[in-house]
Design a protein that fits this description.
Structural class: mainly alpha
Distance between the termini: 26 Å
Number of helices: 4
Helix content: over 70%
Amino acid sequence: MSIKNLLTRFVLLYVLLSIAVTVVIAYFGLDELGVPLGIAILTLAVMLPCEAYGRRNGRYLSRPEKRRVIAVMVAVLWGTQLPVTFLLAWAEGIALDPVLLGIVAVIALVYAGFVAAAVSITGRNLRKRGVIAEESPESP
């Protein structure tokens, strides 16, 4: 499996699961479950393609590959979440003051950290289960 395929799977999973969960939340009026379901979606969308990559290739991402994958995943996440956040704030008549922008920035950084942790944890779990070989030390 290529990195492009891994990232394509991430985008498809993330978008399709987000749409499905949004419909379920709206239909059943489960607004209080929005954040936990969003975290579950992000976890699945990150870990499943990374797991498939490790299984299919018999190895996990190298450090440069991991950085690139994390950067693209975070860019997709921010590219979908930030416009929606600003659109909802505008629709509700909420002013985009420094406090709101600060809160949005902190949440965006937390999500970026979560993506990085999920990518790393997936590799660690694959090594623990013996699906892939231990990581070889890379020369600087």
